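ENTRY TYPE: paired fold submission
RECORD: A
CONTENT: sequence, then structure tokens
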Amino acid sequence: MRADLYPLLDAIQSPADLRQLERAQLPALATELRAFLVDSVSRTGGHLSSNLGTVELAIALHYVFNTPEDRLVWDVGHQSYAHKILTGRREDMARLRMKDGISGFPRRAESPYDTFGVGHSSTSISAALGMALAAKQKGETRKAVAIIGDGAMSAGMAFEALNNAGVADADMLVILNDNEMSISPPVGALNNILTRLMSGKTFNAARKVGRHMLGVAPPLLELARRAEEHVKGMITPGALFEEFGFHYYGPIDGHDLSALVPTLDNIKKLKGAQFLHILTRKGQGYPQAEENPILYHGVGKFDAETGITASVTAHAKRTCTQVFGDWLCDMAAADERLIGITPAMREGSGMVRFAEQFPDRYYDVGIAEQHAVTFAAGLAAEGLKPVVAIYSTFLQRAYDQLIHDVALQNLPVVFAIDRGGLVGADGATHHGAFDLSFLNCVPNMVIMAPADAAECRQMLSTAFTLDCPTAVRYPRGTSGNSGNGAILADHLEPLPVGKGVLLREGKEVALLAVGSMVAPALAAAETLNASVANLRFIKPLDVELVLQLAKSHALIVTLEENALIGGAGSEVARLLTEHGINTPLLQLGLPDRFIDHGEQGELLAELGLDAQGIVESVLKTRKNHSPTKNSGTP
């Protein structure tokens, strides 16, 4: 990557350098930064569309505000690459989302400019409000800015924060980055001018004086307030945010630095809660991403000149996500009670075809995981059969609803849990490390984990037949054995509930594997001459199979791509204790720490959860001749 291609960008090592530029130079910097992003992300993979859409915003924020003294909080954070580049991490972009490289999201340990760790949506306003009020408590003068997208703004947590912030007497700014035009259309140059005027000192001073003068006559004040609302309603869509107690400005073109910079400069001087609405375009400046922003949302490596080709996106092996999408359509055709629900993850969860074929039975509830689960409970209470397609890491956000609204009432909701286990480059915020543990302790739940694509289809069918809450937990992509090309049956026959299967008979050592760990367990068994059982069901466990293996082997080993605490291994240990069996037990799984980003294979190897690591752990345990419990690689 030649430095002379980016003369302005090359001179910026921090926002202090950026603030030395003339305002007239900023559009040229934006062009360089956008070109660098395309070139860089095409080499590493990562989030592209969203980052191309926030180039000018990142430049304007660091140009106007005194970062890191002023706090910027990027909601979700997958749109923060330009922010990272402008804050001294340009060279680090070469190892973006790789093991020991920088994260794809803001991370406090990575830079003082990353003021808050993010990864899940709709947290920015709450965090920025906390920072603003902390500054007030400590007598410090600084600004706190939350940058949130229109999708994230739809979540309940964002509105809870708005409701609090509007009456909290905090100096903060919320920027709504509207890249889907879901709230309002752009209204052109006139609106930019109006917004700049409305954010200036003259307008705000006049508003304060007017309110003071009219305060002596309450009826007149109410009349004036209503008149102001009606007038503003004709030129802005901000009545809702004004009702929350914010001063609303916008919408303005988020790619027009000549409007964005002076507007931010005006707002920075104001006291209280401010709200700026900007309009941006995902994929801005890269035609392929502009045409298909969803395809370019999260990308692997690709040729920046030609863009993503079919050969890059095609998978030779079927993933459990694809299997789920096909099963959903087949089961919907067979049973009209099926309702499909997703919290804004239609493409990622494999529901595109279902949404097209069964539009009246498909519900995308937006980024609202809590609502998705209770909504499903309401459907189930009326005799329908809802299937909630949700990522493991996002199900965490709806845990109370899962317990209180679904499990407590024993309602037949099927949870199709994608991204169970390690997901790779997205790292700690997206690893599905805890679902088996937090589901295991919930009464009435049935929990399954498939070893391959064919078993995934069978388990989904099993879940659908049960009259209780069920979870089918499967990994991302083709990790483990999930994409092994297994032949899928056309039928929708269920499996016997609570029954595992013995896949290999060996001697001395019995490997009890869960889901994605079946494949490495079988590979390790060849070296160890071990027995291998696919547990299939984590709850209820196959008691007969576990006890049989414990009585006939010298060492039991449990394998799971889940936190060891509270997982399948813990349940096996409890079962052995209850039956007074003293067979040594080795538990292998995810250690009691957050796992960083990196390729799935190398992370599993580092944690000793590949075939070689399993062999080494078993041999070490047998050599020590003592019943040990392995808490994972520290």
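RECORD: B
CONTENT: sequence, then structure tokens
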Amino acid sequence: MNKTRKLIAGFVAMMTVAAMAFAGFLPIRPALADSTDTSSITVVNAQPGHTYSAYRFATFSNVKADDTKRDTIASMDVTTLSGPSETENAQRWVYKLHDACLYGNDSVKAKWNRSSAYGENPAAFMATLTGEELASVAAVLTLPEGLAPDGTATVGDTAKDMTIDLPEGWYVITDSGSDKKAIVATTVTSGGTPYTKFLLNEGTGQSAIADTLGRFYAKAEEAQGKPHKEVYADATHKKAEDLANFNIGDPVYYTIDTHISPHAANYNDYTFVIMDQASRGLTLNPSTLTLLSADKTIDANSEATATKLTKDTDYTWDISTATDGTTTLKITITSPKTLAGKYLRAAYPATINADIVKPGTYTYTSTNAATKETKDTTDQLPANRAYNASRVDAYDQGWTEASDTTIFTGSIDFTKVGVDEDAAALAGVTFNLYRGTSSKQSDTNKPLTFNQVAVGEYNYNPAGKVTDLVTDAHGKITVNGLAANMIPNPKVEAAPYTFKETSTNTSKGYAQSILATFTVDHAISDSGVVTNTMDKANNTLRLAEIKDNAITVKNVKNVTQLPLTGAAGVVLFAFLALVLATIATLLAMVYRRARAGLDE
């Protein structure tokens, strides 16, 4: 005898369907007679050029009305139809529905495994499911082989509502323009009374029309677009930095712009998550995050008039950091349905930290567009750059392509050399570093401050305590974390930094009176390549020189060891001429005094 159950849940959800295999065999049973009443299903927002085909898999009988609402069904019996064949499993609805129930979500599996009453009537079992559970069945449902549609409708060039005339029953609707399927019932007439509604809990997928028989909403096949991400040097977001190079310790300001589909209004369970993943070298500060919404794209000029959403009411965020320093920030919209069609802008600051100067790895999360597989990928990240990428996941369809930004810092290094046995390297020489072309200290021009990483290696830190940079055993000084421009801008423009030698290694006899001052023009290309060139006009006694982007700075023990080429030679001879002139002047004075004594 055929088993039937009361239909107590709605027919919902346009879901992706994948074929599955059925491991068992079910006995064949004769089909019950089904209703011949004529009804229809309306495809709301049917998409241009798409054909919608309806395949009936169950009939209704023994309809009972709700006591208080005469247009509403309280219960009815559901009977699974056969297929093109009563004997071939691949051509039977019983087989296909049983298979889909067996491979639904965990809740469906648990219910199916607990019940033995529905073997020959899986459609009756499906009538006991919630909207979410029924959607999971639709996700793995395939049609019997050789099945012809009971009705079709083809849309022209414009989206519109399309009605398919059909016998009463429960249908699977396919869409030629996508791999989506809908499970929906027609309106039901019993005893001359038309019924358009069920008593049910509104579930996923159909929103306000979820409790209406004979209608379902055709989701437009518009893939969620990737967000738009920018980085700024200022909190007003006035000028995006196409080439973003900064100092360690600088604040940077990120914006993420995206759009929630208008179709979210038709789904109670629509989800929307913005993900931002930043590499090591960036300390995110989401505690001051703002999320704005508007009817149009938001920019710096419209931020003030956009609606500011409320944390924990309109959205939530969470943050986690991986072992390689990759920080993942996720912003979850609480009710995308209420923001359907809105444009969003998430904005938050970050600070560049000293980890940027070290090479490392970056781990990001992505979804394969073809397979919908989500995975984490780790890429190598060079020193002196940090990476930040944003993605969006709408309606659990997987992460979009990334919109990303890269920021850079730079390094300057040089080798201090002496004479004779120190010609390759001279340790223990101290410098200060100034931003700009002047080493004259004032209230507005003070030595830059650093954290010492090791002898000879320093990371810029605007709040650091170290100003004296000391050469290591190899005569080297390296300073990291410097911007190419005092205020970053999109142009590849060198920034001057001036090194001033403050003391030399006098224990080895080097002259404290002959010290170097030189200016380096520091540039970073849009690919992060650092180029340091020498400002020849600001190079005291030409003690510094550059060759193949490598800087050496010489110390001497006496004036005769100064460089003798070019302008330096002129300086040396001018210096010697001055010394000789001074000696001549002194001799003349001595001679005049001696002569005066003789005359007396």
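NOTES ON RECORD B: Confidence is low (pLDDT under 50) at residues 1-35, 200-211. The helical segments are 93-102, 106-114, 122-126, 131-140, 566-599.
STATUS: closed
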